[in-house]
């Protein structure tokens, strides 16, 4: 009331008509100027606010927003969305919350567009609880609202909640779109769930969408279901580079490098230019399959692009794992930029290819001029110490890795130490080391101990290690076979029979040995006992010639490595057609002067084939490189880089 009275009084009483008349006696008063009325209150400009929201600076925009709020004014939704974007760019959570408060003040409820923007804002700041609160309070929600929340939950690994939200969305009558499905596909935790989502995609008529199909291929690949992934790919009428990359990457990741490389060739024929993602996947395929020549072709593609550290590292890994250290070292020296991955790859590559001392020298250089070593670097260093027989050096690096580099020892480091002690014949110490670990040993660590027991002929400890492995992996045929071979080496035939009986009783079957090599632009695969190769007659003749030559050097087939109950002659014949022997014979037939034969094998090389490869390398004066799941074997002049320990 007082304010109202004061406002009325400030206006003043109306001027009497008498004062308007012209009287000389009042001339003095006419010379005094009239008192001006007070200026109207200043209203902030919504136009200037919109400009500041779009262009900044943020503090000025926030100041004008505060003034708008003081006057009970609001700007248009687009201006607020620009202001929220400005907050996100500046990482200003406090200002973002002030905007939310401004939009919700006086009981006001933001419209759908702004509510969606607020949900997205909190999601981008990583404030999922606040995003969910805004989402739950929205009186109206559309597909953008639901998809934003589903995507946020998926990204934060709250996959079950994301799937539940999809069900709520459909019960709310909102139709999912391609972005919804591409997000929810990443929330699938089991193949059955993926199949259900795939059915929903078909139900909503989105199965032909390139974006959705690409996501489907990617998720099927991650689950290892390449059959369904490839079916989705093959049914596509139009494909873009993203789709090609998804299917190529899927096969490369699953270990089917042959299909990955074949699809890469199809992609090139279809007129698509490879990008970094394509080339990285193909290089991974070449690495897994030991396809050096194909890897070199990919290298030519890489040279067409600007130098890229990710591609350089992928190339480096490929050359190391294909056993081509000359190319690897040349690439490493030429790299304009080298990160911890580059150094670690080269250190591990040298160690895996039998150049442990070079590996350790490179590590010393890294400590001086390179980046700080990481977890993988130390694994490579310990691997090098193990394969060089440097027990004390290995112990030093293991004990000091946390103090020097802040790296907590993990399973791989413990595994290398067990290998180091096992190779040195310190089996009891290795067992104690396993029992003293901070975590439960896995089958890899026990298998490392089992391999050491085979070399040092410790049958009792081998049986103990095998028992521990089979507790963890009852169907592991490799353990049965290795234990059987250990018993056979010790002429404990009754124990050999018990192992074979256990395999039969549990239905464990030996995976067929498979070896492959690259000749020209083709991959030739050999399977033990399989005589279907079109040149098999010539290959067998070459194999017989090689056996004849090495027999003169004292080679005698070691039939202890034959698991089946066969006669002596049948055992020798079974050994002769092991897949790596067929691959070596074929490689010798098609070898080029000065180039080594590179072979990949799916199983650990047996002792007889190892002896065969050493002698063939000597008689034929040919370097032979065999990579099995355990390690590289570089045979030259009758010697193997593994030192007969594998």
TrEMBL record:
MF (Gene Ontology): RNA binding; zinc ion binding
One Pfam family here: PPR_2
Keyword Transit peptide: yes
PPR repeats: 76-110, 111-141, 142-176, 240-274, 308-338, 339-373, 476-510
DYW domain segment(s): 554-646
Gene Ontology annotations of biological process type: RNA modification
Protein name: Pentatricopeptide repeat-containing protein At2g03880, mitochondrial
Gene that produces this protein: LOC103711594
């Amino acid at each position: 009331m007082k304010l109202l009275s004061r406002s009325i009084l400030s206006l003043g009483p109306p001027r009497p008509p008498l004062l308007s008349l012209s009287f000389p006696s009042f001339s003095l008063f006419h010379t005094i100027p009239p008192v001006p009325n007070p200026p109207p209150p200043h209203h902030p400009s919504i136009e200037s606010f919109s400009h500041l929201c779009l262009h900044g600076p943020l503090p000025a925009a926030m100041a004008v927003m505060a003034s708008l709020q003081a006057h009970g004014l609001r700007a248009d939704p687009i201006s607020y969305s620009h202001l929220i974007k400005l907050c996100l760019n500046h990482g200003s959570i406090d200002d973002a919350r002030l905007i939310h408060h401004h939009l919700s003040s006086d009981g006001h409820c933001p419209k759908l567009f702004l509510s969606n923007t607020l949900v997205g804002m909190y999601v981008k700041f990583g404030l999922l609880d606040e995003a969910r609160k805004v989402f739950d309070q929205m009186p109206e929600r559309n597909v953008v609202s639901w998809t934003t929340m589903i995507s946020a939950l998926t990204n934060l690994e709250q996959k079950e909640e994301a799937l539940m939200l999809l069900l709520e969305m459909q019960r709310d009558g909102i139709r999912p779109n391609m972005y919804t499905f591409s997000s929810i596909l990443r929330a699938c935790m089991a193949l059955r769930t993926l199949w259900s989502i795939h059915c929903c995609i078909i139900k909503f008529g989105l199965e032909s969408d390139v974006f959705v199909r690409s996501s489907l291929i990617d998720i099927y690949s991650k689950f290892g279901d390449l059959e369904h992934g490839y079916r989705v790919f093959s049914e596509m009428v139009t494909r873009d580079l993203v789709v090609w990359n998804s299917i190529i990457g899927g096969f490369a990741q699953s270990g089917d490098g042959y299909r990955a490389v074949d699809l890469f060739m199809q992609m090139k024929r279809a007129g698509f230019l490879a990008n970094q993602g394509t080339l990285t996947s193909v290089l991974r395929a070449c690495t897994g399959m030991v396809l050096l020549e194909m890897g070199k072709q990919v290298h030519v593609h890489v040279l067409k692009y600007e130098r890229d550290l990710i591609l350089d590292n992928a190339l480096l890994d490929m050359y190391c794992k294909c056993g081509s250290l000359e190319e690897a070292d040349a690439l490493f020296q030429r790299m304009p930029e080298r990160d911890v991955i580059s150094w670690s790859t080269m250190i591990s590559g040298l160690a895996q290819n039998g150049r442990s001392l070079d590996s350790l020298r490179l590590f010393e250089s890294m400590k001086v001029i390179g980046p700080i070593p990481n977890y993988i670097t130390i694994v490579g260093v310990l691997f090098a110490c193990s394969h060089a027989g440097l027990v004390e050096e290995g112990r030093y690096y293991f004990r000091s890795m946390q103090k020097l580099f802040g790296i907590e020892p993990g399973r791989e480091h413990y595994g290398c130490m067990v290998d180091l002690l096992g190779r040195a014949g310190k089996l009891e110490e290795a067992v104690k080391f396993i029992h003293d670990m901070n975590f439960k040993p896995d089958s890899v660590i026990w298998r490392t101990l089992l391999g050491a027991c085979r070399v040092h002929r410790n049958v009792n400890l081998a049986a103990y290690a095998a028992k521990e492995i089979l507790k963890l992996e009852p169907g592991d045929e490799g353990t049965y076979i290795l234990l059987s071979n250990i018993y056979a080496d010790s002429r404990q035939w009754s124990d050999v029979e018990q192992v074979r009986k256990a395999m039969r009783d549990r239905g464990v079957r030996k995976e067929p040995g498979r070896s492959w090599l690259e000749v020209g632009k083709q991959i030739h695969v050999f399977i033990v006992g399989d005589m279907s190769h079109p040149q098999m007659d010539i290959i067998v003749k070459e194999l017989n010639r090689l056996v004849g030559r090495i027999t003169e050097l004292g080679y005698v087939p070691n039939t202890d490595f034959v698991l089946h109950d066969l006669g002596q002659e049948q055992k020798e014949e079974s050994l002769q057609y092991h897949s790596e022997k067929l691959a070596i014979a074929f490689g010798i037939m098609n070898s080029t002067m000065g180039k080594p034969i590179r072979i990949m094998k799916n199983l650990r090389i047996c002792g007889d084939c190892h002896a065969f490869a050493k002698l063939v390398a000597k008689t034929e004066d040919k370097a032979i490189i065999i990579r099995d799941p355990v390690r590289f074997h570089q045979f030259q002049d009758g010697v193997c880089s593994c030192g007969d320990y594998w």
